């Protein structure tokens, strides 16, 4: 991030979508839209030229799609964070983003305040997934992770780590988890790291899937 704030690159093949996103982001304090691109290849070039902090990336575009563009961008730099934008009718193609290094998913009809929160969250090094995307993600990714009962999945986690995992599954950021559990953000980061390590998960996005797959989160759970 620069002194002027978080630098954002918008990538979508629909100009009206880019215009709408720009209007929301430009009106917010501490955010600066530094450029736009209409396809994945152009996005990669613009990332090289502009060095944004966050890229809002459409999934399906002509030519190079958003998944492959994300894979190439994140492989080149850990400093650039990518949020994938997708429609409600998600499919398995979109979830290639989990392996491409994306910091999360948002729906294109996301509310303005949620969009701003997501950009700020990933710019800080965290990750975020829309709860609606999470539910659909679980439906389409059943079986990716090894089956286990809730008790088996819970083995090795402390009660506090279990609470942190459940908060992750609800889509909470580290800051929000800290507020919910009356902890410091540094303590939350430590707990998140331990959860990922103990359950052999790559990142917090996979932690969300794991929690739902293994009965540690979902409708009706505390």
Automatic annotation (TrEMBL):
Response regulatory domain boundaries: 7-123
Entry keywords, A to Z: DNA-binding, Phosphoprotein, Transcription, Transcription regulation
Organism ancestry: Bacteria, Bacillati, Actinomycetota, Actinomycetes, Micrococcales
Keyword Transcription: yes
Family annotation (CDD domains): LuxR_C_like (cd06170), REC_NarL-like (cd17535)
Protein name: Response regulator transcription factor
Species of provenance: Amnibacterium soli
PANTHER family per the UniProt record, alphabetical: TRANSCRIPTIONAL REGULATORY PROTEIN NARL-RELATED, TWO-COMPONENT RESPONSE REGULATOR
A Pfam family that the UniProt record links to this protein: Response_reg
Organism superkingdom: Bacteria
InterPro entries per the UniProt record, alphabetical: CheY-like_superfamily (IPR011006), NreC/VraR/RcsB-like_REC (IPR058245), Sig_transdc_resp-reg_C-effctor (IPR016032), Sig_transdc_resp-reg_receiver (IPR001789), Tscrpt_reg_LuxR_C (IPR000792), WalR-like (IPR039420)
């Amino acid at each position: 991030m620069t002194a002027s704030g978080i630098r954002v690159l918008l990538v979508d093949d629909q100009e009206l979508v880019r215009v709408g996103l720009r209007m929301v982001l430009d009106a917010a304090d501490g955010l600066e839209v530094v450029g736009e691109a209409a396809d994945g290849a152009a996005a990669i070039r613009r990332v090289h030229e502009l060095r944004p902090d966050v890229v809002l990336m459409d999934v399906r575009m002509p030519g190079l799609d958003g998944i492959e563009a994300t894979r190439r961008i994140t492989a080149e730099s850990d400093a650039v964070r990518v949020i994938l934008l997708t429609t409600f009718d998600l499919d398995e193609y979109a979830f290639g983003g989990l392996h491409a290094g994306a910091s999360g998913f948002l729906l294109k009809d996301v509310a303005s305040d949620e969009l701003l929160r997501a950009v700020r969250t990933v710019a800080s090094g965290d990750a975020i997934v829309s709860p609606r995307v999470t539910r659909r993600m679980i439906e389409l990714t059943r079986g990716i992770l090894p089956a286990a009962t809730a008790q088996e999945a819970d083995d090795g986690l402390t009660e506090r780590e279990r609470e942190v995992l459940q908060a992750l599954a609800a889509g909470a950021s580290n800051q929000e988890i800290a507020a919910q559990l009356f902890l410091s953000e540094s303590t939350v980061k430590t707990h998140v790291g331990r959860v990922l390590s103990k359950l052999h998960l790559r990142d917090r996005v996979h932690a969300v899937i794991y929690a739902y797959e293994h009965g540690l989160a979902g409708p009706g759970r505390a």
